[in-house]
Write a structure and sequence with these properties.
With about 325 residues, this protein is mainly α. The chain folds into two domains: about 1-190, no CATH class; about 190-305. Helix content is about 65%, strand content about 5%. It has ten helices and three strands; from the N terminus they run H-H-H-H-H-E-E-E-H-H-H-H-H. It has helices at about 1-15, 15-25, 25-50, 60-90, 100-115, 160-190, 200-215, 220-245, 250-270, 280-305; strands at about 125-130, 135-145, 150-155. Strand 2 (about 135-145) and strand 3 form a beta hairpin. The longest helix is centred in the middle third of the chain and has 32 residues, at about 160-190. The protein is rod-shaped, with a radius of gyration of 30 Å.
């Protein structure tokens, strides 16, 4: 199934932390995204199963198969619309003026199995001719309140309709993927040439050496401590600028929380709020180890923010 690869690409792109934060910060978008992905996959399964069926008629499951197939096509269109809306803020229009071939499939579903007994508030009435039911299609009888050129019947070629929708859905999914890629690359472009790992200079880790060497209230100690504290705030701000709310990056959130807590404890010792000079060196060593962990994340972030050649396959 060619849609499967594109759907997997879209899911991978949506997992880019900056995009994931956008989705997860508004739960309705997050739920709409995943339900849309699942519905596209589920309806594909239903459609593929229909294609694998042996021929049938009205008396051995034909109506059930046709009802299910037409409803699956309809649901799949809805899922594509809301996948685009949740990811890009763009709701795909399916009407007489936009995506007309998909619109015709919706109209067929509505007339044949959706509202055949009272179409458009009694303007028209439709039914599937029982003797014509088979895997390839059926004949639909149409009656209108006011005499219309559409009165009579029309032949519905189901297998042809499946092929039409498959091609159009594939094209729309490809367009969603490309737009999502462009959006993410545009965000990365803001940080071109600005490596987060550059903030972790030798000076930062030399500061830890000095902190472990000087007495706690020495002027040089206080100078290096302030430098470390300001460096951490700058790094945290840079991460938030790249990713948004760090709440949804569990590993990073834990590291930031721990470093914040260690700085808070040092501040309280320096302000004589608590007495813990004996354990002070251990606090500094712990702080240093978490700075190394933060550096590792900075290196990974730089890799993730590398601009990639556009893929339009």
């Amino acid at each position: 199934m060619k849609e499967k690869r594109i759907l997997n690409n879209i899911v991978e792109l949506a997992d880019f932390l900056w995009k994931r934060e956008q989705l997860f910060s508004k739960k309705e978008k997050w739920f709409q995204f995943w339900v849309s992905i699942d519905t596209i996959k589920d309806t594909n399964e239903a459609i593929e199963f229909y294609k694998s069926l042996d021929d049938f008629n009205a008396f051995n499951g034909g109506y059930l198969y046709l009802y299910g197939l037409l409803q699956s096509l309809f649901l799949q269109q809805d899922a594509i619309k809301y996948l685009s809306k949740s990811l890009l803020g763009i709701e795909i229009k399916i009407n007489k003026n936009n995506n007309y071939d998909l619109f015709k499939i919706r109209e067929l579903r509505n007339s044949s199995i959706g509202h055949p007994t009272n179409r458009n508030n009694g303007i028209s009435f439709h039914f599937i001719s029982r003797p014509t039911v088979n895997k390839k299609g059926f004949t639909m009888i149409n009656e209108y309140k006011i005499l219309s050129k559409h009165d009579g019947f029309n032949e519905v070629e189901i297998l042809s309709i499946i092929d039409i929708q498959d091609k159009l859905i594939h094209s729309i999914l490809k367009d969603i993927k490309n737009k999502l890629e462009d959006e993410i690359e545009e965000h990365k472009e803001k940080f071109k040439g600005k490596l987060l790992s550059d903030f972790f200079s030798e000076t930062i880790f030399n500061s830890f050496v000095i902190l472990k060497s000087y007495q706690i209230y020495h002027n040089r100690y206080l100078f290096e401590y302030k430098y470390l504290s300001k460096s951490f705030l700058r790094i945290k701000q840079e991460l938030e600028t790249r990713y948004g709310n760090l709440e949804y990056y569990e590993d990073l959130k834990q590291i930031i929380y721990t470093i914040d807590s260690l700085f808070e404890r040092i501040d309280r010792i320096l302000n004589n709020e608590i007495k813990d000079e004996l354990g002070f060196r251990l606090i500094i060593e712990n702080l240093e180890s978490y700075f190394y962990k933060l550096q590792e994340i900075a290196v990974e972030t730089d890799k993730e923010f590398q601009l990639k050649p556009q893929s339009r396959k």
